[in-house]
């Protein structure tokens, strides 16, 4: 299949803002692939359409920055100054290269146009290039692709290299197109997607006409991490009791989420963003290896425990451990980790469709119980122990008083609040569900994403110092809700500046527009109604609590959350601390 055939339809997709039309064009693309291509081709098209080379669960990026791409574009004869001007004008390196195509030196009139395989396979190859002269080698591959291409192909090639296609294609839209073309209910496809986290694989299987209910590759599988189930904020415990009857309350630990997979004595641990962090926490790996059970996926919160007080140490300590590649033994001595397991997703078979109370029973059979009412003495004894793996503290009740007591006790031992879970609910990967709530003392802390950044002034002139922060709506559109500059240490400002440089898309009036990748947890005095921002709200006096490198744009708060907190602020909240 020619890359040009795909690009022509991408162009149509890009030209409309309507989701339904985008979906129709994607159906056209499937039809074309059926005619001219293979199942493998559709797989590649899916990845490319969402700006990827690797499957989503792989958590791997091509990692080519704009500078390298610009270098490659220069080698094919485009003048740097003209290129930079055009990027500034259009705000898009893809369009810039396309427009300047007439400047490109023609190598031969008989160049064969690139196929889809040429493009995809070359990019895969580029991702594997390491060592000396790697930059040069990468540039050579990119230039040769660019040379072979026509202007429209260059537009999408340049964007793909930066992994930002800007055609407005998303996984949900692709799933809708599959649903229409293959005549399968969308909910069914969504459910499978949540488990496999790989749109290309689904495309391939559908093209091959497999029985998607039975195909083993489409089921939960060890060493293929799944997106965690997410919680919603709730403003009062009694609302949750009314909704759920007798919920399962658990301590909400102040740590970082981990997903642990084990099979044939091999252990892999993934972060919330599905990064492989196995090597940075060897003591936990060791403990899991010692467990008798095998063929298992469990989930929990990893906390750094201060063994003197039993309280959790600052969240940054855990991130320091997760990020660490060297001196791990030394860190192991300094920072004592414990994982509180709170769910089990797989034990010889997938368990995610079982209700929570049954999954919990299976987990308790393996780890033991921590029933707050019955085991409280044991729990309090063990808090300061060196125990590395434990089960979350749990209380199942419909009694508000008792639940409040558990909540206060959880805060007293230094944690964030409580989780409130529906004992009858299955595990729904990747979605923020109304079957799991979080309840914290104040609703002040929000997770937001940086969308723009401005350089600082005075002492801070070498760093970015002010950040536009945004929340998202249900569809994933971003809405700025404030600017934040305070709360960051110099070390953090330095780190943020580096991160921002690597994801900068464009610069307008000295302000960097960035890919929405950096998540900040911010506190603020209140949420105000405001005309300043399109969403109608603004944060008053926002302040960074911490940089949430463990979170991605999937995890940020929504406009709905803002509205809910705004309503609570107005006095509708009950039993807040
Ligand atoms: P948040 O990060 O504020 O969205 O809150 C939900 C997060 O709380 C989960 O993603 C977990 O990382 C964390 N957490 C801490 N304790 C628990 C628990 N007992 N059950 C589930 N999640 C927990």
Give me a quick take on this structure.
41% of the residues lie in helices and 20% in strands.
* Fraction in helix: 40-55%
CATH homology superfamily of the domain at 231-439: DNA ligase/mRNA capping enzyme
Mean pLDDT: 92
Put simply, the count of helices is: 21
- Note the gap between the termini: 62 Å
Q: What's the main sheet like?
A: 7 strands, antiparallel
Morphology call: globular
From the 3D coordinates, which CATH architecture of the domain at 231-439 would you assign?
Answer: 2-Layer Sandwich
Determine the structural class based on helices, strands and strand pairing. Answer: alpha+beta
Strand content: 15-25%
Ions, cofactors and other ligands present here are: adenosine monophosphate
* Low-pLDDT windows of residues: 572-577
Number of strands: 19
Q: Which fold name corresponds to the CATH topology of the domain at 231-439?
A: D-amino Acid Aminotransferase, Chain A, domain 1
What does the radius of gyration come to?
A: 25 Å
CATH class of the domain at 231-439: Alpha Beta
């Amino acid at each position: 299949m020619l890359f040009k055939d795909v690009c022509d339809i991408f162009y149509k997709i890009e030209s409309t803002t309507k989701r339904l039309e985008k979906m129709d064009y994607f159906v056209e693309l499937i039809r074309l692939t059926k005619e001219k291509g293979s199942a493998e081709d559709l797989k590649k098209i899916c990845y490319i359409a969402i700006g990827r080379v690797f499957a989503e669960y792989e958590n791997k990026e091509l990692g080519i920055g704009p500078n390298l791409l610009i270098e490659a574009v220069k080698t094919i004869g485009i003048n740097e100054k003209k290129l930079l001007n055009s990027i500034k004008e259009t705000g898009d390196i893809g369009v810039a290269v396309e427009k300047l195509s007439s400047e490109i030196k023609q190598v031969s009139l008989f160049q064969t146009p690139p196929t889809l395989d040429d493009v995809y396979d070359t990019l895969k190859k580029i991702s594997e290039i390491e060592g000396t002269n790697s930059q040069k080698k990468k540039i050579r591959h990119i230039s040769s692709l660019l040379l072979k291409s026509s202007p429209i192909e260059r537009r999408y090639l340049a964007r793909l290299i930066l992994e930002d296609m800007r055609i407005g294609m998303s996984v949900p839209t692709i799933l809708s197109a599959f649903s229409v073309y293959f005549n399968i209910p969308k909910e069914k496809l969504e459910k499978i997607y949540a488990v496999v986290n790989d749109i290309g694989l689904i495309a391939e299987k559908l093209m091959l006409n497999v029985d998607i209910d039975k195909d083993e590759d489409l089921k939960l599988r060890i060493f293929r991490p799944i997106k965690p189930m997410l919680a919603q904020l709730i403003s009062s415990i009694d609302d949750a009791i009314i909704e759920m009857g007798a919920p399962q309350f658990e301590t909400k630990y102040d740590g970082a989420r981990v997903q642990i997979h084990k099979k044939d004595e091999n252990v892999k641990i993934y972060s919330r963003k599905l990064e492989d962090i196995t090597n940075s926490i060897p003591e936990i790996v060791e403990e899991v290896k010692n467990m008798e059970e095998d063929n298992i996926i469990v989930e929990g919160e990893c906390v750094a425990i201060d063994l003197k007080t039993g309280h959790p140490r600052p969240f940054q300590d855990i991130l320091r451990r997760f990020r660490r590649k060297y001196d791990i033994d030394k860190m192991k001595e300094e920072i004592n980790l414990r994982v509180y397991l709170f769910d089990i997703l797989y034990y010889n078979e997938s368990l995610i469709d079982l209700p929570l109370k049954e999954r919990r029973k299976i987990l308790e059979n393996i780890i033991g119980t921590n029933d707050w009412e019955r085991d409280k003495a044991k729990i309090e004894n063990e808090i300061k122990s060196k125990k590395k793996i434990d089960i979350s503290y749990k209380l199942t009740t419909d009694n508000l008083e008792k639940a409040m007591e558990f909540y206060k006790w959880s805060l007293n031992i230094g944690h964030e609040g409580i989780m409130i879970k529906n004992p009858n609910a299955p595990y729904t990967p990747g979605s923020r569900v109304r079957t799991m709530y979080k309840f914290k003392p104040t609703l002040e802390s929000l997770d937001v994403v940086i969308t723009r950044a401005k350089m600082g002034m005075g002492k801070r002139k070498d760093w970015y110092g002010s950040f536009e922060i945004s929340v998202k709506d249900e569809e994933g559109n971003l809405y700025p809700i404030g600017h934040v500059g305070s709360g960051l240490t110099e070390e953090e400002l330095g780190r943020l500046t580096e991160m921002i440089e690597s994801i900068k898309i464009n610069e307008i009036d000295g302000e960097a527009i960035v890919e929405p990748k950096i998540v900040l947890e911010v506190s603020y005095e209140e949420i105000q109604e405001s005309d300043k921002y399109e969403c109608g709200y603004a944060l008053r006096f926002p302040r960074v609590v911490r940089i949430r490198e463990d979170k991605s744009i999937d995890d940020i708060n929504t406009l709905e959350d803002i509205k809910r907190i705004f309503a609570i602020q107005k006095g509708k909240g009950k039993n807040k601390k």
